[in-house]
Design brief:
Among the domains are: 68-133, wza like fold (2-Layer Sandwich), CATH 3.30.1950; 136-217, Outer membrane lipoprotein wza fold like, CATH 3.10.560.10; 221-294, Outer membrane lipoprotein wza fold like; 375-397 and 430-536, Outer membrane lipoprotein wza domain like (Outer membrane lipoprotein wza fold like). The chain contains 10 helices and 28 strands. It has helices spanning 2-34, 109-118, 159-165, 194-199, 243-250, 324-328, 347-369, 376-397, 453-459, 513-529; strands at residues 38-39, 68-75, 79-84, 90-93, 97-100, 125-133, 136-143, 149-154, 174-183, 186-191, 212-217, 221-226, 232-235, 240-242, 258-264, 270-276, 284-286, 290-294, 301-308, 315-319, 343-345, 404-405, 423-426, 432-437, 443-446, 467-475, 481-484, 501-506. Strands 1-13-12-18-15-16 form a 6-stranded mixed β-sheet, with no helix packed on it. A 5-stranded mixed β-sheet has the order 8-7-11-9-10, with helices on one face. A 5-stranded mixed β-sheet has the order 20-19-23-21-22. The protein is elongated and about 120 Å long. The model is unreliable at 1-35 and 531-536 (pLDDT under 50).
């Protein structure tokens, strides 16, 4: 008996372990997702360079042992061949003999062979020589790269190609500005990849067998965020840099006006200062500081959009501080306009609604992934529910709230001041009632004065099996929302008016009560803030 109990206990632990391992992996990835400042040049090394071999002409390339040369002689003596530079640095030409070419620059190759031919042939013999293939070499790549090792290539390959073979520079510790090449333990070349990243300039370098590329660790850097085209972590050559030089690299947007500098002292205390761009071009930015560029404007005028049923202006520019009543008085209504039910939408409200929604979704995700189980059956149910909740969260994140400001009937419009980007919507006179959500046949119906709330529900075939009859939303034309409980024992039948919308939310089917509460609240907010009914 004890044996079977132990086996059941181990199986339960195994199932729980699978669930918990999924949570652990998710949490491990979180810091990476939260990293907002990437390294400048992070996308340079993606394998594109290492896959190519370039036999490009380099006039300063020094002929090396193993190089292959296309040689053609014509005139008094004709000869055509492809010949390799031997181990002594020579090539052999019939009737001419050996010609030493190792160490000669590429642009001097033809002339060197021509001079040797003239020593033999007094009559006219012409020479054309071209480097056909470069010497294959093996190069060590080490330091702050993702995969140090010995890599094969051509002596003419660029330093970027060899670093790409090593899977690129380590994003956290590697330097893009301090890369050196060692030959017999002596530095023979130093590269700064910022020249290539910013201007496309890359000095050609000829590798020898056994050279070592060392990517040094990053020492000094600043972090850039905000209103620029390049919000990255930039590496410095020294301990500080002038703001005017920073702007050349980060490519500010035309809207930029100010910036903040965040720094830390030796006691790990943070300080933040704000400056204007135009008065601080020579300000020194020091290593370790974060610069946030901001478009801190003080607008005198704001733009308002007016849509819907009206007869005149659709876009209006007014002075900052203009009230809603002042704009409303300028609108010319048509006989079909319903000004008493106008709606106001605001960007800042939409942003707050989105922020609140994201926070609730994050909390729901955390609760779902950390829910414990006590039995094998419960663990299976939790796993299935977690997949459904994750799917719901993914769809909910894509919803964009409208940012509607509900205007109550007794509101003094002269005390509501407009913001830039506000939208005023004038609805048409509406004699329809829209029923949507968890009913058998969602539809729009004509308003009939004597029809009750129950009549409209029944005209759509009644509630669906998923309907939450305790929380039916009735949305007025102005955006005002009323909640109606159709299961109450002493309920009063709600009077439906022209233009009303009846929104029947769905019931959440899950064993986890806290998740039920959270999902119901989120569905409710989506229905109000974005006019979206998202099914779980």
């Amino acid at each position: 008996m004890l044996k079977y109990i132990l086996i059941s206990f181990l199986l339960t632990l195994k199932l729980l372990g699978v669930e918990l391992s999924g949570v652990t992996d998710t949490n491990t990835d979180t810091p990476t997702q939260q990293e907002s400042v990437q390294v400048f040049g992070y996308n340079l090394f993606n394998g594109s360079f290492s896959q190519n071999k370039q036999y490009r002409y380099n006039p300063d390339y020094l002929i090396s042992i193993g190089d292959t040369i296309n040689l053609q002689l014509w005139g008094a003596f004709e000869f055509n061949t492809r010949i390799s530079v031997d181990s002594q640095g020579n090539i052999f030409v019939p009737k001419v003999g050996t010609i030493h070419v190792a160490g000669i620059k590429n642009n001097q190759l033809s002339q060197t062979i021509q001079n040797a031919v003239k020593n033999i042939f007094k009559e006219s013999v012409f020479v054309y020589a071209d480097l056909n293939s470069y010497q294959p070499v093996s190069i060590f790549v080490t330091g702050a790269v993702n995969k140090p090792g010995l890599y094969e290539g051509l002596s003419s390959d660029s330093i970027i190609q060899y670093i790409d073979k090593a899977k690129g520079i380590n994003a956290k510790s590697g330097s893009y500005r301090n890369i050196k090449v060692l030959r017999q333990n002596k530095e023979v070349y130093r590269a700064d990849l910022y020249n290539f990243l910013l201007s496309g300039s890359l000095k050609l370098f000829q590798f020898h067998m056994g050279d070592v590329i060392v990517v040094e660790s990053v020492k000094d850097y600043i972090e850039i965020t905000g209103d620029v085209k390049r919000p990255y972590r930039f590496e410095l050559k020294g301990k500080s840099i002038a703001l005017k030089d920073v702007l050349k690299a980060v490519l500010p947007n035309p809207t930029l006006t100010n910036f903040t500098v965040t720094s830390y002292n030796q006691d790990n205390e943070q300080s933040v200062a704000i400056y204007t761009i135009k008065d601080n071009m020579n300000l020194q930015i020091h290593s370790g500081e974060t610069i946030n560029f901001i478009p801190d404007h003080n607008p005198k005028d704001i733009a308002i959009e007016i849509t819907g049923e009206h007869a005149n202006i659709h876009n209006l520019v007014v002075k900052k501080g203009t009230s809603l009543k002042e704009v409303f008085d300028k609108i010319k209504f048509t006989p079909m306009s319903d000004p008493s039910s106008f709606q106001l939408f605001r960007k800042s409200i939409a942003a707050e609604q989105k922020k609140l929604l994201d926070a609730q979704l994050n909390d729901l995700e955390a609760k779902t992934l950390t829910a414990g189980s006590y039995t094998v059956e419960e663990a299976t149910i939790r796993k299935q529910e977690a997949a459904l909740v994750q799917n719901f969260i993914q769809r909910a994140r894509e919803v964009q709230p409208k940012g509607q400001v509900i205007i109550n009937k007794d509101t003094n419009l002269s005390q509501i001041y407009l913001e830039d980007g506000d939208k005023i919507y004038i609805p048409k006179k509406n004699n329809m009632v829209v029923i949507q959500g968890e009913v058998m046949l969602p539809s729009a119906q004509t308003y009939v004065e004597n029809l009750t709330f129950e009549d409209y529900i029944q005209s759509c075939g009644g509630y669906s099996f998923r309907a939450n009859q305790e929380q039916v939303l009735i949305i007025k034309k102005s955006g005002e929302v009323h909640t109606y409980d159709d299961t109450a024992f002493f309920k009063e039948d709600y009077k439906i008016e022209p233009g009303d919308s009846i929104l029947v939310l769905g019931r959440v089917d899950t064993k986890y009560l806290q998740v039920v509460k959270d999902i119901t609240q989120i569905i409710y907010q989506l229905a109000l803030g974005a006019a979206v009914v998202l099914r779980y």
